[in-house]
Amino acid sequence: MDSELIARLRRDLPEGRVLTDPAVTAGYAHDEAEWAPHGSPAAVVRPRTAEEVQHVVRACLDHGVPVVTRGAGTGLSGGANAMDGAVVLSTEAMNAIKDIDPLERLAVVEPGVVNDDLRTACAGHGLWYPPDPASAPWSTIGGNVATNAGGLCCVKYGVTRDYVLGLQFVTGTGELVRVGRRTAKGVAGYDLTGLLVGSEGTLGVITEVTLRLRPRRAPEHTVAGHFASVLDAGRAVTAVAAAGVTPSALELIDRYCLEAVDAWKQMGLSTEADVVLLGRTDAPGRAGDEEAETMRRCFEEAGATWAARSTDPQEADALFEARRLAYPALERLGPVLTEDVCVPKSAVPEMLGRIHAIAERHGTLIANIAHAGDGNLHPLLITPPGDEPARVRAQAAFHDIIAEALALGGTVTGEHGVGLLKRDGLRAEVGPEVMALNRAVKDALDPRGLLNPGKVLGPRAPLGTRY
Amino acid sequence: MDSELIARLRRDLPEGRVLTDPAVTAGYAHDEAEWAPHGSPAAVVRPRTAEEVQHVVRACLDHGVPVVTRGAGTGLSGGANAMDGAVVLSTEAMNAIKDIDPLERLAVVEPGVVNDDLRTACAGHGLWYPPDPASAPWSTIGGNVATNAGGLCCVKYGVTRDYVLGLQFVTGTGELVRVGRRTAKGVAGYDLTGLLVGSEGTLGVITEVTLRLRPRRAPEHTVAGHFASVLDAGRAVTAVAAAGVTPSALELIDRYCLEAVDAWKQMGLSTEADVVLLGRTDAPGRAGDEEAETMRRCFEEAGATWAARSTDPQEADALFEARRLAYPALERLGPVLTEDVCVPKSAVPEMLGRIHAIAERHGTLIANIAHAGDGNLHPLLITPPGDEPARVRAQAAFHDIIAEALALGGTVTGEHGVGLLKRDGLRAEVGPEVMALNRAVKDALDPRGLLNPGKVLGPRAPLGTRY
């Protein structure tokens, strides 16, 4: 532990910002990525202003200590995991919504604002912030920006990067800068804003975000389908794309998830279907009716055992609630390792089949939830608590899923980020020349290598050692 | 002239790729930016494959000769202007549309494909590539990507960067690499794709582009308004934004443009209006009707002398044709220096007022066309041919417009890029720390500094000198 650094931070920051009690800091040592390694941070700092963030970064630069930035810690790839001796910079106390401007359709927020809180505030102005990761009730905009978070809406409305107009951040040399703009368009210089989005705390520490908003949309129509197999459901996804429909959500939930939700919440889903596909459209007026009907027909033609438009909004919401409950429901069964591959839409049925074969080959329980409409699959690998051989088999299955996604022209991570868990996958996906370009960018913006070192690009230095 | 380099290029590339006749190469020495300096290139090379591009870049690196990449040369900021002794790499012969995939909704194209040709090809599959710069009949996708081109549709559909999924390019060290993806989502590593978009040939030479497409949209409704002043028209723009409408186009044409079009094409526009505002909406069905009616009401309430929905598609197209003809019509009067500032939507009336004051102050004729709906104004500074004092006054007005846009929270370039003309403006907009970050990125990806040197970031080394 760098006691001089701690003393400096305590001296220069207001009371209560610096936490060093190991019982407290342990709660900030890692995100929700199962089995990703982590160490013990020297301190957790919870700044309240951009200037305090700058002070923390400068102090860490002076002392050669790594800075690991985190929002709510809901990440699933280990991107926010601390290494021994690091300073964890938590943005949770920077949670002010500074501005919501209905005319310019933008919001200016501090990084610690919770996604759902922003969405609620926007709704009060007739506005909508689309990105809706499943973690939206807890995850922060800063974390969403750092990981370029996705969600259910992406199939129609894109990802977090599509909504970030500008950023204020502290650079790897300790400068507090603004990039981007408040205008609708702008091409003045390189797109540093977009570069920071998804950089997982390795290129800068975000202190303020200017977000593009959309007007409130039309009410959604919901279509539900029951299928006898994930392959049939996958074919329905491809059929929807081929029909030219752009759903506002298209989610797949397999029977392991349905059973786990039923075991917890007694919703009676698994007695009715092996696989559920949930489609939504928010096209206004008659176009919405037509798209919903087209989706229903696509479901039936792909072999749905049952498909219907939900006329009851509460029923529709309950179905999507089951989708949201799938992950915590599965966690009740044991540790869940979450995959995040994304494949071309046409490859969804094939990829689901290969995941099934991988589960059989390794004797691993793999449940599936998927943002099926954009090919972003979340196979969930579940192991009994404490079963080490099962864990080893699950790890092997995890790597096989990555390999199969790449073989089908996909990517190793659709929306969770590289963090620690996908570093090998990234190298396999992009190859040495593009890794060198990534490294060149990292070295250019973080020349001291103290911003979340080891994440995304590696080298895979053992965590628990000091960088 | 580097005769060894020329000899090597001639020897290693197929017949006809290398042009050195000064009468021919002069046509490749500059883009359409009025008054931007340029030199005489040593050679123009027109490769036909990515491997030939790589060969050109590697040869230039070996000989320390700058590479200036260009598409159709329709740029308006000098970004494609050659320096003495440079090799101009024209992508015009790489014009294959390699793939249009309706199911994945993407296209893969070579950089020399003309924008309108791609749009036509997409339409044949029921698909749409939205970015529509005014240069669309001539400009190439490679140039559009390199400048992050905008257009009329941006107010609803965003800019070129929003449609680039992946790129193949030759790096500053001569590697041929692929970045990005073919999947709907992906967060594997830094967003190098987005970084290359808008980098104006200074970070790499693009050899292939993978583009996101949209389904064909609903037919547009057109609303036209006549106004007695640009201020009234500006107020109408703000009113449309405040009403929550998202037009698919919202264009302003002032009386100088109307008169110039009339003088050329006898359309009789300038006898009816001082300023024309053209709005469009492509919301489907009833929603489109409602949005069009809301726009018409906003026009009237802002003081339109006449406002009506166009029920005749031919009439509506004629109005937009007048918008497209404005620029060439003005060029008949003398050299036109095109501005490209973008301000917040709420600042459009104020900015138009300040432009008017600047015109008076400098005794310069400034016509205005504007993508008014997203605050992107194109003041057009016109000088009589050969009138040097008028040119000097116009230059001063150009700088004043930039200063006023910045004062109103705007940007110096909404969609044309920095090139040569906006380098001072860029520095004024972003400040020294962000300039240093831009420079760090440039040095990281182009360590030899031979890719379009001097553009965007400067230093403003005199063109005509060898780098």
UniProtKB/TrEMBL annotation, chains A, B:
- Tell me the cofactors it needs: FAD
Kindly give the SUPFAM superfamilies that the UniProt entry links to this protein.
FAD-binding/transporter-associated domain-like, FAD-linked oxidases, C-terminal domain
State the InterPro entries in the record.
FAD-bd_oxidored_4_C (IPR004113), FAD-bd_PCMH (IPR016166), FAD-bd_PCMH-like_sf (IPR036318), FAD-bd_PCMH_sub2 (IPR016169), FAD-linked_Oxase-like_C (IPR016164), FAD-linked_OxidoTrans_Type4 (IPR051914), Oxid_FAD_bind_N (IPR006094), Vanillyl_alc_oxidase_C-sub2 (IPR016171)
Q: What keywords is this UniProt entry annotated with?
A: FAD, Flavoprotein, Oxidoreductase
Q: Where is the FAD-binding PCMH-type domain?
A: 37-216
The coiled-coil segments of this chain are none
For whether the record's keyword set contains Hydrolase, the answer is no
Q: Name one Pfam family in it.
A: FAD_binding_4
Record protein name field: FAD-binding protein
Natural source organism: Streptomyces pseudovenezuelae
Taxonomic placement = Bacteria, Bacillati, Actinomycetota, Actinomycetes, Kitasatosporales
